[in-house]
Amino acid sequence: MHRVEFRRIALNQDQILALALPPNPVKMNDSRAAKYMRYMTTSAFADPSFCWEVDALTPPQITAVLRDALTSMIDQQSWQASLRQEELEKQQVSAVAGRWDEVQAFLAGGQLPT
Question: Would you call the peptide bond into 11 cis, given omega within 30 degrees of 0 as the criterion?
Answer without folding.
Answer: yes
